[in-house]
Specification:
The chain is of the alpha/beta class. It has 19 helices and 18 strands. The strands form 5 sheets. An 8-stranded mixed β-sheet has the order 11-10-9-8-7-6-3-12, sandwiched between helices.
């Protein structure tokens, strides 16, 4: 039976169940699969089978003037203890076959061209940041909790340009002694000189995607580094004084086996990454599932004909059953090694705690504003949100004209604010606390009205535990595995 939304067929239940029941016999059957196979879980199965992905929480009305958005943000920042600030440099030396983020490829073969591109996009980011400072005066006063240099691959441009960009932000925004600096890179761009330059600038947290240590799978994904380069980068960063190094792995890659992914997890544990991020490969366009950041053109692996050609070459796409085996077996091993999920897909080691920017954004007692500057960046407060355009030509033209190039602005009603806050808090995989909820939303309760019904139903299905005496609602292990599907189908 095909499930439809209006005139659009969005998944075949028969095909999804077949994929769900395809396991690697060498490993236990995943608990999540038995839950998803139930008829009452059709909505969850439809969500996960469509490769849906979203870590953003959009508003419920798009009729929101930009001026009000800036006023909302400024007034909330003025009341906030801190906020998360990130700058996006959208340049990469190549595009990975799964990458849906808004990036521009600049070959490193011509050093002058690459350097010119770096200057151009640093100039544009600085110009946009200046416009934000004019539109939102509180940005100059509210302390920055963590500043993140994202991309693209920021470390693909000259260190002097990154230093110029950082100097502007430190002069214009309120960086304090408590502000932490995080930089993103890729193993092929993180040689000793690049890592040393970041450390000299004041960065103490480094994050980069390994995706896998299997060089054959890296080549299929068009990653231009080896597993050994990924291992060297963390060793150099530790040697040079970085306090934490966080790294990403992807499961569900074509040709990947359960054993292969678990081997990657063991390698990450052995290398001592502060946070190990295990991300399911997502092939559905981000824009279809309300994800703020998306490329204007599809990633190669989004195209069915490309996926078919890979499969014909022997690179089978792991079934849902095998993907959940990868996930559940990896989580068991990570927990054994001292890692805990916080938020979903992020496993920081208990000795270092969660990544600061994610905690600032999502923790129930925080949920401070986020300000993103650059191509495709995303900004939100509790009352409204906005996305910068992902179109590079439009972006550069509007910034040159003195306009913040917002593509979408939406507001969040009072009722939606409470729902949004619960969704964010659930995504941390930490207990929801009644006391905190009442403080934020006077007169509301997690144990009455809509929440009582929703959480009781989740508890009945083995996805949550409700403890009114302790004042908590906690996802079970299976609820945590399925949290993205839950918050995007049942809670939102």
């Amino acid at each position: 039976m095909a499930i439809r939304e209006g005139d659009i067929e969005y998944y075949s239940r028969e095909e999804a169940l077949a994929s769900l029941s395809d396991f690697d016999p060498a490993y236990p059957e995943p608990v999540a699969c038995s839950v998803l196979a139930r008829p009452e879980s059709d909505h969850l199965l439809g969500y996960v089978s469509q490769e849906a992905f979203t870590h953003v929480f959009p508003g419920d009305s798009t009729k929101h003037p930009s001026a009000r958005f800036f006023d909302d943000l400024s007034s909330e920042l003025a009341r906030s203890a801190t906020f998360h600030l990130w700058a996006d440099v959208p340049l990469c030396r190549y595009r990975c076959n799964f990458c849906q983020f808004p990036i521009l490829v600049v070959s490193s073969r011509n050093g002058e061209v690459a350097a010119a591109a770096g200057r151009r996009w640093v100039d544009a980011n600085i110009a946009e940041a200046g416009l934000w400072l004019e539109a939102v005066p509180a940005l100059r006063a509210t302390p920055v909790g963590e500043f993140c240099l994202f991309g693209g691959t920021p470390t693909s441009i000259p260190a002097a340009e990154l230093g110029r960009l950082l100097d502007f932000y430190m002069d214009g925004f309120n960086f304090t002694s408590a502000t932490s600096l995080r930089a993103e890179g890729s193993p092929d761009s993180l040689d000793r000189a690049a890592i040393a330059s970041l450390h000299d600038m004041g960065f103490r947290t480094l994050t980069y995607g390994t995706q896998t240590f299997n060089d054959g799978l890296l080549a299929v994904a068009n990653r231009r580094h080896s597993g050994e380069q990924a291992a060297r980068a963390i060793a150099v960063a530790r040697e040079l004084g970085f306090q934490r190094v966080d790294g990403d792995l992807v499961y569900g890659l074509p040709g990947q086996t359960v054993a292969g992914f678990l081997s990657d997890v063991e390698r990450m544990i052995g290398l001592g990454f502060s946070t190990i991020v295990i991300i399911k490969l997502h092939l559905r366009p981000f824009k279809e599932v309300d994800y703020a950041v998306g490329h204007v053109s599809p990633a190669p692996w989004e195209l069915p004909e490309v996926r078919s050609k890979l499969a014909a070459r022997g690179y089978d796409w792991p079934s849902l059953g095998r993907q959940y085996q990868m996930r559940e077996m990896a989580v068991a091993r990570l927990v054994e090694a001292g890692y805990r999920e916080h938020p979903t897909t992020y496993f920081p080691h208990s000795s270092v705690g969660p990544e600061r920017w994610r905690a600032l954004n999502l923790d129930q007692d925080k949920q401070y504003p986020q300000v993103g500057i650059g191509l495709g960046a995303y900004t939100w407060s509790t009352r409204s949100e906005a996305t910068v355009t992902s179109d590079p030509h439009l972006y550069l033209r509007q910034v040159q004209d003195g306009v913040i190039p917002l593509s979408e602005v939406s507001s969040i009603s009072d009722a939606a604010r409470e729902v949004r806050a619960v969704r964010m808090a659930l995504s941390t995989c930490q207990p929801l606390r009644e006391e905190t909820h009442r403080e934020r939303f006077p007169g509301a309760s997690l144990f009455t009205g809509q929440w009582r019904r929703k959480f009781a139903d989740l508890e009945r299905r083995g996805l949550a535990r409700v403890d009114a005496a302790a004042g908590t609602v906690t996802l079970t292990a299976t609820g945590t595995t399925l949290v993205e599907a839950i918050i995007n189908t049942e809670i939102g």
